[in-house]
Amino acid sequence: MAVRQLPEAIINRIAAGEVVERPASVVKELVENAIDAGAGRIEIVTAGGGKTLIRVTDDGCGMTSADLSLAVDRHATSKLDGDDLVDIRTLGFRGEALPSIGAVARLSIATRYADEPHGWEITVEGGRKSAPRPAAISVGTRIEVADLFFSTPARLKFLKSDRAEAGAVTEIVKRLAMANPAVHFALSGADRTALDAPAATGADARKLRLGQVMGADFRDNSVPVAAEREGVRLDGQVGLPTYNRANSLSQYLFVNGRPVRDKLFTGAVRGAYSEVLARDRHPVVALFLSIDPHQIDVNVHPAKTEIRFRDAGLVRGLIVGAIREALAAAGHRAASTGGVATLAALRSGAGGSGMRPAAPANWDWRASPQRPVAMPGFAEAQAAFAATLEPAADARGAVAPAEEDNLSRPLGAARAQIHGTYIVAQTEDGIVIVDQHAAHERIVLERLKQGLATTGIARQMLLIPDIVDLPQEDVDRIVERGDELADLGLVVERFGPGAVMVRETPALLGEVDSARLLRDLADDLAEWDSAVRVAEKIDHVAATMACHGSVRAGRLLKPEEMNALLREIEATPRAGQCNHGRPTHVELKLADIERLFGRK
Length: 600
Description:
Strand content: 15-25%
CATH class of the domain at 8-197: Alpha Beta
Oligomer: single chain
CATH topology of the domain at 8-197: Heat Shock Protein 90
Shape: globular
């Protein structure tokens, strides 16, 4: 078949296939253009999930007539000062968004530059553009996209329902809103609940915006992250381990203000939460990475949703270290939603909305309310119960002076142990229920890790060194990181071509399958450029040792032992959850308990 030049219309449609995947792709490109134009308010209106109509209005700098006519041509952009495709400091730069959209939809653009007396309007329909004509519009730009994929009906058939497409649009706007707290975002349409995120300013602008978009629960159950290493800066909020989700859709990463999805980021977050979260649960995080544009490549995906780092190991280490440090600083904090869930469980177990206590079987309805019927033996039982409270409290619940200090502590003063498993403590404004095994498990693990960090990881020398055959490139990677592996207790050296000799292994691991360990390690080095596998195995063994060395459920504790455990929880990092991700304690506020019993 002879080679021929494709028509311009076909070229534009092929380009559109890379850039315009669905209505959400159109919204992303148009809103990014508005942000690059310096808009302070962006309004997005859709109909039919974006298939029928998408309208984006902003108050940015606008365009002149000449710029408008050029903007709908391919490979025309205002966002590159020179020819350096690495030094990218804007969200859009390809110059393909508007012509690609115009190739598969009915596109209308009205804009006004600040120095011009009136605006200009242009239309593009199926790749055919009109001449600019005067239009009445305030400073800024209004873009309407109607009948998406009308010129390529086959693409239209692959779109999902209006509800699903509307949800994708909402997700895109949420991500862009989180990255730009100084911009007011308004999303509306007949097919969705309106999203309105006013501009946030001041030192807490980012946290306020995250609360607007991700909800008050995330704002109340997250901790700040701030770290910097070799010119790379990481900020944001990460959820407490006990505040988690069933999937990873609530994990957001922004690189230089650009929302991206990256497997390095997902792996780093999973590694940071590995000791405090169950394997089938996922944390909620919003992280913002600032890095020199020359250290990343944003041009690896047509939609710019993926990114490539020059030093992936540095970025991964920064994310893991910063999150772990933030969670350690949170101490014994657990998600406030745990108490809410507990109250909900109590209500559902009560068998109805009315929370009045059940009447005794022998209650006399003829008795006067002012003269309650005395239950047989009640006075004697009450006296015996009051005696058990001395000297901590009298019959009215007055706390002895020795207990006042404990009541003011975050986890309060121990009052009882039930079923040999749970400690019930009283605080100044509620009660705390503690799982003694889960709490002590975390305490033991943190002590063990502190000891490893202080004295180092003990090694065991192999009587007969293991020889492991590996591809030459894997051998080179492992030998090159020999010093780092030695710090983790694994001593290796090159053994001829295509082989590695293992001389020493971490003592904590016991008997080691050297071949399997080195193959996994080589995979880690190839993917992450970091020896995470050995560290994860050591952490896993430490967690197992902590589990078996902790106070078991069923062991009866003395009051002083219970209080000592509460104080240790308060002083231990990451003590809000055990090594398996379960909460170590649940707090119930007195006001919630009173509502539970209908007292409020």
